[in-house]
Write a structure and sequence with these properties.
The chain has 26 helices and no strands. By secondary structure, the chain is an all-alpha fold. The C terminus is likely disordered. It is found in: Cytoplasmic vesicle, Secretory vesicle.
């Protein structure tokens, strides 16, 4: 029970089930009558079950007994086999030396089999040398198709033998076979050499003897088909395969084209040499593409795309060749030719757009011959070269112009009698021609040259102004040198006006003709400097006369202003040799100079009116002088309202005022009209009157302080350029040595 608790549990369940069944069956009294029958039936049943169990167990026991017997027998047989194996092992160890002899016998057998295989093909191998010799003779006689046929036959024989040996696992015999076919490599190389020589001369041959070229192409096609077949099968690849002769054909063709035209070293950096080189390239390329299009295309299969290949080769080689040329230090003519050729000639009907090449040849899809970056870089190089050339020419022009200023002759005149020189014509022709030439290439180059030309013109004006200053210094040392100093200054004014009016027309495009402010300023500075030198010359002749006033001699009457008018007339006569706007400018500036010099002379404190009579005389003299000068300039064409001499009339009113107490009001009106006048100027004028008390002076100056003036934008300063002498000290020591 302890070992089989499930059996006890099963027995209890069976008893319980039997009791339950019996109580259910025999619960009623009438069922008890069949109890004996039930008992006998159950006893028979139990007896049958027990007999079957005994029979089953007996059967199992018999099987186990048979199995054990078999196991015992097998163990005995295994032990016997082990003993036999041990004996065999010792026997094998004893006969190891004999097995080495068997291995040698096996190797001999393999070699015998290989030799037997080789012996089978010996008749064919012995005939190889004879075929080699015949094939070489065919090659030397340029019977290429027959030679190639025999070459293919020998290669096929070699490949067939090697393939069979490879399938039989006789790889060691392949070396022996290959030794018979060693001449195949030489034949291949000899044939290939002739083929590539033919391809290298293909452009000539298709015109003279296309048969050779067609033969070469047929041989290449044969080899290409053999390569394709072997590569597709991919079972056995013979030695020397794939040959790739079609790719070699393209390579040789490209190398021939490049070597014939684009390997020239040391291309002339000057325009003439480069022009000749580019013209040769243009002629040769068009001629050769015609040959390819009309003749070579018919000698090769369509899938070779021979015309397209040649066109691309020429295009790419030209691109590289132009880049190599640009590495040289080219002059401006060479750079221009290169840009023109690459951007215009190359695509023109004279070259790649030639009617004989269209429509088959189309380089538009191949991209530009020069990249935009390279074009821009080349344009900048060209501008630098043009700038250097332009600078040299402008400097030479300036030197010639400077020498002309010192000639013993007046400058030349135009049909209207205005002074001029050839300078503006030379300069503008030089600038406009360079801009026009640049416009033949690209708009960007035109704009670059235009901008550079304006910059160089601006720099030239600066150097021209410095040359004028240098000539002015020479003239100050000796006023007779140059002899016609004023005339040449007037010619320079006309020249400057001509440059100013012409510079806007330099650019062909009206929308791009805006003149930079810096150039306008340079032209303006040139004009001002020339006017300044002319006015300085006028001033040198006026100063001796101005030094004589004011004085008592002048006050009593003299020809001083008449002499000034003569000087002015002399200069205005010269000024008439400039064009009207310049004449008006010089006349206006001359009038301002005369007025300021006249006022400056009055401000030098040389004279003080002693009494009323002298003030009356001073007022009369001022009126006469100012009137005479005003009438002179009015007669010359300068309107009185534009004259600065009105300041002399206004100053006269201050001096003529009889009641000094009214000076404050008079001065207020004066400073309102001439706001650039200072306290020192007013104080000097009050001193000139000679009757102004300290109180009145103080009141006038205080009134001026209370009414500060602002200069209007259109106001022309008069008094601000006049310096008043410093007042003398009220007390001073006698001149002498210190104690």
């Amino acid at each position: 029970d302890e070992e089989w608790p499930e059996a006890e549990k099963a027995e209890k369940l069976a008893r319980g089930a039997a009791l339950k069944w019996a109580s259910g069956v025999f619960y009623r009294p009438e069922k008890l009558e069949g109890l004996g029958q039930y008992r006998s039936r159950e006893m028979q049943r139990n007896s049958s079950i027990q007999s079957r169990l005994k029979s089953t167990v007996q059967s199992y026991l018999e099987g186990v007994s048979a199995g054990l017997e078999q196991l015992r027998s097998a163990a005995q047989e295994v032990q016997s086999a082990c003993q036999d194996l041990g004996a065999a092992r010792w026997a094998l160890l004893d006969s190891a030396d004999r097995f080495q002899g068997l291995q040698q016998m096996q190797a001999l057998m393999v070699e015998h089999v290989q030799l037997a295989s080789v012996v089978q093909v010996l008749p064919q191998l012995f005939s190889v040398q004879e075929v080699f010799s015949h094939t070489l003779q065919l090659l030397h006689g340029q019977h290429l198709l027959e030679a190639h046929a025999e070459l293919m036959m020998m290669e096929h024989l070699r490949d067939d033998i090697l393939s069979q040996l490879d399938l039989r696992g006789l790889s060691s015999a392949q070396t022996t076979v290959l030794s018979y076919f060693g001449g195949l490599q030489e034949l291949n190389e000899s044939l290939a050499k002739q083929l590539w020589d033919i391809v290298g001369n293909s452009l000539r041959l298709v015109r003279e003897d296309p048969v050779l070229f067609v033969t070469a192409v047929r041989i290449i096609e044969r080899e290409e088909k053999i390569d394709d077949t072997l590569l597709l099968e991919a079972t056995f690849l013979p030695p020397g395969r794939p040959k790739s002769w079609k790719q070699k054909f393209y390579q040789v063709l490209r190398e021939t084209i490049i070597g014939a035209h684009f390997h020239a070293t040391g291309v002339d950096a000057e325009g003439h040499g480069l022009a000749k080189h580019l013209a040769t390239l243009q002629k040769d390329i068009v001629s050769e593409l015609r040959v390819v299009k009309d003749l070579m295309v018919q000698c090769v299969p369509a899938h070779y795309n021979i015309l397209s290949i040649c066109t691309i080769t020429y295009h790419q080689a030209l691109t590289s060749h132009l880049q190599d040329i640009l590495q040289e230090d080219l002059d401006k003519q060479a750079l221009f030719l290169l840009l023109e050729w690459a951007l215009h000639v190359y695509h023109s009907p004279d070259m790649m757009g030639h009617p004989d090449l269209l429509p088959e040849v189309d380089v538009s899809a191949l991209g530009p011959l020069m990249s935009p970056e390279l074009v821009d870089q080349t344009e900048r190089k060209y501008v630098v070269k043009v700038k250097a050339s332009m600078l040299e020419w402008l400097q030479r022009t300036l030197e010639v112009e400077f020498k002309e200023w010192f000639r013993e002759e007046e400058p030349e005149t135009d049909h209207q009698g205005f002074f001029q020189s050839a300078l503006p014509v030379i300069v503008m022709q030089m600038l406009s021609e360079n801009i026009r030439v640049a416009s033949l290439i690209t708009n960007s180059l035109q704009q670059k040259v235009y901008t550079m030309a304006l910059e160089e013109l601006e720099a030239f004006l600066g150097r021209l102004r410095e040359a004028l200053v240098q000539a002015g210094k020479e003239h100050q040392k000796d006023r007779t040198v140059p002899k016609y100093y004023v005339s040449y200054l007037l010619a320079m004014l006309n020249n400057n006006l001509a440059l100013s009016s012409s510079v806007s027309s330099l650019h062909p495009d009206i929308a791009c003709r805006e003149v930079p402010m810096s150039l306008r300023a340079a032209l303006d500075r040139m004009q001002k400097k020339t006017c300044q030198l002319l006015l300085e010359e006028l001033l040198l002749d006026l100063q001796p006369l101005c030094l004589q006033l004011p004085s008592h001699k002048w006050l009593l009457g003299s020809q001083l202003v008449s002499s000034m008018c003569e000087v002015i007339n002399k200069y205005t006569k010269d000024f008439s040799r400039v064009r009207k706007p310049l004449f008006t400018l010089l006349l206006t500036e001359s009038e301002l100079l005369v007025a300021s010099q006249y006022l400056r002379a009055l401000m030098q404190k040389k004279m003080v009116c002693k009494n009323k009579e002298e003030r009356v005389q001073l007022c009369d003299r001022l009126l006469q002088d100012a009137t005479q000068l005003r009438e002179l300039f009015c007669g010359l064409g300068l309107d009185g309202s534009q004259q600065s001499l009105e300041a002399v009339f206004a100053l006269r009113e201050l001096i003529c005022l009889k009641d000094p107490a009214m000076l404050s009001l008079e001065v207020l009106g004066f400073i309102t009209k001439y706001p650039d006048i200072s306290d020192e100027h007013i104080s000097t004028l009050l001193d000139l009157r000679g009757d102004v008390s300290k109180e009145v002076r103080h009141m006038v100056l205080e009134m001026m302080a209370q009414h500060p003036q602002v200069l209007p934008e259109s106001y022309r300063p008069i008094f601000s350029t006049i310096l008043v002498p410093a007042p003398e000290l009220p007390f001073c020591l006698r001149k002498g040595k210190c104690a």
